[in-house]
Amino acid sequence: MRTPENSADLVAAEDVLLFANAAITATGQREFRSGALDQQLSLDFLHAYIRVNYRRLYAASLALDINDHNAARIVLGLLETAGEASAEERRTEGRLIAARLARLPPQRVYRLFGEVRRAGINNRRTRAIMRDWLAARPDLGHDAVKYRSGVKTAARHVHLRCPQGAEPLAEVGAFLFRPGKLPRYEHPLLDAWRRAHYEQGAVAELPFTVAEGFAARHGMKRETFLKRAAPRMTRLERLRTHAVAQRPDVDLAVMPLTRLALYVLALPFEQRAARRAELTGALRTAARRAAGRHAGSWGRVHAVLDDSFSSSGSGQKRRRPLAVALACHHLLEVLAAPGAYRGLWTSGRGDALLVRPWGPTPLGMRVLDALEPGPGGAAPDRLVIVSDGWDNAPAGLAGEVLRVWRARLDPGRRTAVVHVNPVYDADGFDVRRLAAGVPTAGIRDAEDLPALVEIARFAEGRTGAAELHAYLDRRVALFLGEDDREEEKETVS
Predict the structure, then answer these.
(1) Per-residue burial over 252-285, b = 16 or more CB atoms within 10 Å of its CB, e = otherwise
(2) Rounded to an integer, what distance in angstroms lies between the CA atom of residue 159 and that of residue 152?
(3) Closest CA to 272 of 331, 361, 349
(4) Best CA proximity match to 290, nearest among 177, 452, 64
(5) Mean of pLDDT values over 454-459
(6) Average of per-residue pLDDT across 252-259
């Protein structure tokens, strides 16, 4: 029998894993089976519960692969309740917040600063964090043009000093707070913004999102504008505009794996078939890049991939679950030993490039197929299930198959089973699970799969709370110790 202390540690570990799954998958947006309000209320409760009861672990979540929405919410919660933390906790939280802000897209950070101002959080530590982040921006003039209202709000809140004269910061101050006072700006983007009001040629010099408004004002043709603006587009902007226009002349080689899968699924079947070699090659290249040092290290891998109708997602997250499954399919092929991967779609479809959301979710039948021995009569070393967990053809079969398999056929756990779920279940405050004995982790981007499999083992019940806390401490140390980090997501390619 567990002692009371061990029971409390176990509950704490389960709560932290539950929150980690939510922070990875949930974004407060509508899902296939729950509305946006349900998602938001569920997240509100979880954030408050974990912050109040496990503040240190709540802050440590910033070092995990959580999504940007929840990272910003954690930062806001920690800043808003700084009085509840000890001096040592505030120091650690400050470092974690600064490190996480440096990794967030700038538009997300400026939106967060707006929420900080509206919440009336104006203590010295908060102002210092905001000032340090603004000081570290590579080009505040670029930000002033592209995120004007965000920069203006942040500058007001921290009382940013903008001296008079010709200094760069003085020009930014004049641009934000005294527009029209200077006849021209030394900073090329600030001056391009000034000239774009009356000079059509200056429009192409501006960031794409700003230039769109000026292009409409000048009545520029869309095709002409896109051609001129292409050199200044970010990779994501280029992908979006070309996907809308259904034009194939976009460089797919540099796209992240899950983003690339979303792009592929947005194409009509005819284009996918016509561009099969290009699209498949790009997906495999992105998968090899995502696998990194893990490539070929997972042995024999069988996967069950959900392409049922619910994988269509929602209007806000269109085809997101199916894109994660498609990306995982290609990533698992790279992670497995050469020639030792087998992927099974719930629809029975064999062509991964032409998958579409269709039909029920017969996970149980596909799990039975996946557990069949491969060539040579050997069972798989790993079974990975990528699904929202709504096993309904027949209901509950997958959980029963996995229970019997583990209890009767594989008590020695020769086959490692893990379920990754891309959909947050607002009613259950977690991602939906197939069976109690199957480790389940939330997933948003397929690129995080190797790290999430490591987290999922804590949910299996074979490791204790001490191991989980040690793992979190290692992640925090690694997170704070990284000096060389990738530039923000919205830099111009």
Answers:
(1) beebbbbbbbbbbbbbeeeebeebeeebeebbeb
(2) 10
(3) 349
(4) 452
(5) 77
(6) 88
